Amino acid sequence: MRAEVRADFERALTELDGDDAFLVRLERHFADLRGPLVELYGADPRFDEQWPALLAAVARTAAARDPELRELDHEREITPDWLHREHAVGYVAYVDRFAGTLQGVRERLPYLRELGVTYLHLMPLLRARPAPNDGGYAVADYGAVEPALGTIDDLRALASDLRAEGMALCVDVVVNHTAREHPWAQAALAGDGRRLAYYRTFEDRSVPDAYEATLPQVFPDHAPGNFTWEPALGRWVWTTFNPYQWDLDYTNPEVFVAMAEVMLSLSAVGVDVLRLDAVPFLWKRRGTDCQNQPEVHLLVQAFRALMRIAAPAVAFKAEAIVSPRQLVTYLGVGRHEGKECDLAYHNVLMVLLWSALASRRVALMTHALRAMPPVPRGAGWLTYVRCHDDIGWAITEEDAGAAGESGHLHRRFLADFYAGDFPGSFARGARFQPEPDGEARTSGTAAALAGLEAAADAGDEEQVDLAIRRLVLLHALAFSHGGLPLLYMGDEIGLRNDVAWSQDPLRSDDNRWMHRPWMDWAAAGRRYDPGSVEGRLWGAIHRLVEERKASPAMHAQGRSEPLWTGNDHVFGLLREHAGHRLLVLANVTEHEQRVGVHLVHEHGVVPRPGGAGRLEADDLVLVPYGCAWLTS
Ligand code: OTU
Fold first, then answer.
1. Ligand 1 centroid vs 116 CA: distance in angstroms?
2. 0.85 exceeded by the pTM?
3. What element of type H or E holds 384?
4. What pLDDT is stored for residue 1 in this prediction?
5. Where does 387-438 have alpha helices with state H?
6. Strands 201-202 vs 227-230: parallel, antiparallel or unpaired
7. Residue 503: domain span
């Protein structure tokens, strides 16, 4: 520690109490916490008052830590890759749509155990404003559970059940904004100047207009602009997302401390992973898009450091749907190496999977993945096929150009294709926030986008079979790419679009609700029937889970190299970890495809494709949509 930091540390020690382990952690991470905060707030007189309160909250959390959680702290300190190992498999679900209540989720744990799940992300469950509330992303009370779902005690009980099952619980921390109904915002509306300073508000349009000149819009259709006029306040409020989601002002150290306290209380309830929602937006700077500013990384590092001192078992996951170069920074690069999040969504992989499926070509995917910066040390990706949000076709001109395509035309093609508007398309999705130039984002469940919905409606068995193969292929790639794979609720049984979403007036302006269907337990009950769609899908995905768990090369911190296979319809990926090798070969078409078997031998793996293909003379022949995992 540098001398002046040492002095701060010694001073902190005089005020704090804790056991030996706590004091060791405090010393180890002190500079990582104090440093960024001094950089951000050193000149702000409010900081001197907030700092002791923050330290006290950290010490209190550590002291009150449940013995079971303390044990977990030790366990994860010696197994820092616990989320990155090959046995890790995630599942994402809405509490109400999956099981009604938190108590209901507890009763459904056998289903998740059966599937091999080790990590459960429950969609926003803290008390939100009444609908519309952006699926819970407009929090009115970070200290309470949504009453219809249960109580904090139910959450604690669920976390404990999960722990007994070897499953970790991930919960959203909506850090960028609160609901307009949150007590801080309500106090501000009632004239409380201190709370008003938690938000970014402006007396007239001059400053908002200056920002708008370079700000993109997240929901231009149903929530245009980034500012909302509040008559009660007589001011414009910064609202990046919906008008009822007020952006917090992180230039105010009180806001940092208030959010730190939210995180600390969640750790005390037994939450294992914090999903930092919309984290790129935390710091605004005029003349920029107000995302990924360097200060965001100071904030994330400080949050992380305080959690490492208070409750080291808790991991961080970044929700940052930004360009690859920006994305990796949330996993800690440069001076933040090893000090930010453990996990971040690999949005680019998800987009490329769907792009390859629609175009039946892998050049773009291979090129774009080869151009991805390597995953920073000690961190890993979250890989996934679908999630609760729309798919934004994040394909850059640069990557498209390298594959001989136009970025604009390809993005437009994908928007058309997945809306079912392109000749020969098998998809049944919908456009989300369409733009005047024909581009759009896409909504729809994996089953709808992969053609299962259309095929089943048409009663076309051959197409149903192809759709199932597509879904299995996408999951086989997400599971073997390297990273913690996430299954989105219902994809394991091919849940179709929710037909009723648009009849709910509180949701009908946002078609993302189309791909947030209710779990169909009757359909899930058919998972053992090998003749049913559910049985075929569930069986195949369950096999992927099992095989993944036995494949050390899938460790998230392994080396990943996309390969040119000599066939533009076959994607190749070589993985290596701790002396284990895996070659993934994936046919993205409905026809058989061949690759020279020399490719397999060259990479030191055995050409044993199982059901994905066969050997024929000098070729490895992959069946339609076949994905082979070849090991050494
Ligand atoms: C997230 O998504 C959530 O996943 C959404 O469901 C919420 O609506 C939103 O935050 C607001 O809380 O823009 O289109 O780079 O892309 O935070 C979805 C991150 C979003 C953003 C992301 C955001």
1. 28
2. yes
3. strand 380-384
4. 83
5. 397-402, 407-418
6. unpaired
7. 347-550
